[in-house]
Amino acid sequence: MTPGVSPEERLARAALTRVLEPGDERGGEWLRRFGAVRLMALLTSPDAGREQLTDVREQRLGGYRIRAVAAVPERDLAAVAEAGGRFVCPGDQEWPSQLDDLGAARPIGLWVRGRPDLRIWSLRSVAVVGARACTSYGAHMAAGLGSGLAERGWVVTSGGAFGVDGAAHRGALAAGGATVAVLACGVDVVYPRGHAELIGRIAEQGLVIGELPPGDHPTRSRFVLRNRVIAALTRGTVVVEAEYRSGSLVTARAAQRLGRFTMGVPGPATSGLSAGVHELLRGEGALVTDAAEVIELVGDIGDLAPLRRGPVLPRDLLDPVSARVLEALPARGAADGGQIARGAGTTTDEALGKLYELHSLGFVERLGDGWQLTSRATPAGSARRGGT
Which partner for 185 in 91, 202, 218, 343 could form a disulfide, CB atoms 3.0-4.6 Å apart? Predict the structure, then answer.
């Protein structure tokens, strides 16, 4: 930690993570206006607070006060330290400045487990998110993206959930790479329980982070609000399988609002699990199929995906005149040099010269005074002539 954050500021921010829900923009405005130490003083001093905090209903303010009085930040800081973690605040050297793009919805601070530096890791990170109840195809694509990105030195960020999230994390870990799990609960809470081993591995090899203090459990709204942090931390978000109503699309839309890259992996047109992804791709989302295509978007100049094309056939290497002469031969039977020249739009002498070249390459053969395609050229010629 740097000396830029005082112990009093750190304690106050730690306390406020028990007072304000993630993404509370009203609380974020108060925090900007008063600072963390002053805000906690206002919330725990009814007389002073009522005069200053006038832009909220009494009932809501009362809820803030109850939580502020009950907060014991020293205990939370000790709990996260016992779990091998720390509390990172704005102003710390480790604070990822891209989270500031969230404005009033910026996290008060982040509870972090793991040794790596969060700010450094966030500089080259990509979010891979998607359906919890994904198909085997979705799990395969997510794991491939996770390992491919990790092998190329990128940090894979996701939410630690079942399905696509877990597959992306495992792909990165299998490649010996870096991965970050952003939780909707305390970083010492295992959720989902079935991912206890996975989250433990992430904490050992990577980072487990969250806005909620130790011991706090997830709720439906906290999952949704967690997604804005995933979007803000990363250079871009890739969605692998998502229905129309999906938290993964919430992450993608947050990324779009923040000016980050938004990408989707297409699935079968008949799959409801890919319907949300396809809707994203019809808008501003970019279609990607592997890690190289993701990096081409989010990476530096020159990080280009390899050129994609089908296999190079021998006829693809012919010069234009030879190709026209070959095209002029009938699919079945033979033709003389004059007929072939007319079909190719060239002179008879030039056509004959090219026919002898094509003969040496095995495309054509002599049949009396005429020329015909060989078996090497016939299948392609038959398909061409048949219009398939």
Answer: 218
